[in-house]
Amino acid sequence: MVRIFKEDSRFVLLVLALLVSLFVSVYVLSGILWTFVFAATIAYTLYPFFSYLRRKGLSAFVSSIVSTFIGMFAIVALAFPFIIVVYRRRDVLFEFLRDIPESFEFEVFGFELSLDVGVIVDVSWEYLSEAAIEAAQATPTIILQFFVLVVVIYVLLYKSNVIASYILGVFDESFHSLLYGYNKKIKDTIIGLYVVQLSTAILTFFIGLPFFYLLGYEPFIFLSLIAGVLQFIPILGPSILIVGLALFEVLIGEVVSAAIVLALGLLLIAGLPDLVLRPYLADVETGLSPSQYFIGFIGGIITIGAIGIIVGPLVIAILIKTFEVISKSD
């Protein structure tokens, strides 16, 4: 009998099978691909804690469950205070919307102009209603993706040794030290990026406290908390809040106050944390220079969305690591 595939073509066939499997998997699972990537970054962040529990004598099963719970609790804890504060202060928001005048008159270069605010409010309510409906329709998908997130984090932690052995088994032993180096670089960079993100949000909160207090806003703690949480929204961030407050000042006729809020707010609340503190922290925590960090940060967001704030700089870090390895090779 003539064999079409001989023993020496076995490796080539296996590589082709792997590539086909990866292509099909990416296509079929494209809807949760970035959920998986996000889960992998969280698993990397939780791995030191998982290893600590293992060293304390806990089983891999228990350590994975505890670590996953801590990670999920941290994610929920970031959003929960914001939701609670907004819910408790909803009466202030509704009162503000009710008190908006139907029209607003102002003077520009001697010409009296009138702005029909009622139309803007109606359009805003319509937009918010549509957004609320879309959010409600997307709730089942969000819940499923959150469930996938939890499962993937747990599996990556629980089977971390098995996954590592599979990856190492594919490569010759001479490559193992190189793979360990890449693994350390990825772990340190991901942890550093999450530290940068959290630190920037906390610093924004503390910068906001005196800023909103001195400008005379009574719920200054509430506004500072919103500003801090908005740091997790790429590009726009606290600028959304500042522009909203400036618009509020304009609607009540305080044009000068609006200009002050807009100028100082964009400088201190939006600009200072993002343009000064974030690059400095990124340099300290990840070793990426400000220019390298911003290239990855902006490029990641534009290309793949919110997860790009982590994946973008991580890709840059891996690229730099690769150049370092090549430059040091014989």
Automatic annotation (TrEMBL):
Its main location: membrane. One of its GO terms (cellular component) is membrane. Signal peptide: none annotated. The keyword Magnesium does not apply. Keywords: Membrane, Transmembrane, Transmembrane helix. It is found in: Membrane. The chain crosses the membrane at residues 12-30, 36-53, 65-88, 140-157, 194-215, 221-248, 255-273, 293-320. InterPro entries: AI-2E-like (IPR002549). It comes from the Archaea. It is a multi-pass membrane protein. Belongs to the autoinducer-2 exporter (AI-2E) (TC 2.A.86) family. This is Putative PurR-regulated permease PerM. The lineage of its organism: Archaea, Methanobacteriati, Methanobacteriota, Methanonatronarchaeia, Methanonatronarchaeales.
